[in-house]
Specification:
single chain; 7 helices; about 40% helix; elongated
Length: about 160
């Protein structure tokens, strides 16, 4: 990865586009180079898909539910239980964590009934011993592209191959 890749990636994240023409306008990197590098970033697995950001509140999924999940320790339980949680309809993100909590689960729901149903689905998994859920009251920050949280120079220093 080099500085041109970082320029392209930050533009993709900031502008919400993967159009070579628009990236060229923002970076002055020739469109053909942008196209080639986007393809290379996809082949390398850095870019996984096209950007299609949605406003979840406008969609009707305005409540963010954050759930701590506690599970029985066992061989490879982080994979088996994690997969069971991830397979539940409506689950958006599952994180296996270190500490008292085994998993953090993020979902976006329409109402309390949907939240209650999800929690019931978690607790129906045999290995799960208990859950603790919270409704997010106010979304202070929800950056869908974490690359936007870094200065360009920080990214270059951390990611560019010397």
């Amino acid at each position: 990865m080099d500085e041109k890749d970082i320029q392209i990636l930050t533009t993709v994240a900031e502008e919400g586009t993967n159009s070579p023409e628009k990236i060229e306008q923002h970076t002055d990197i020739p469109k053909s180079t942008v196209h080639y590098r986007l393809n290379q970033l996809r082949e390398d697995g850095v870019l996984k898909n096209d950007l299609s950001d949605m406003d979840l509140a406008e969609l009707g999924l305005s409540i963010t539910l954050i759930t701590e999940v506690y599970a029985e320790f066992g061989e490879d339980y982080h994979e088996t239980v994690g997969e069971k949680i991830a397979d539940i309809e409506g689950v958006n993100q599952v994180y296996f964590t270190i500490g008292d909590t085994d998993f953090i689960v993020i979902t976006h729901v329409v109402d309390r009934e949907m939240a209650e149903s999800l929690i019931g689905d978690y607790e129906a998994i045999d290995e799960i011993t208990r859950t603790s859920s919270r409704f997010a009251i106010t979304r202070v920050k929800d950056e869908s592209h974490p690359i936007n949280d870094f200065e360009y120079d920080t990214l270059v220093d951390a990611l560019v191959d010397e």
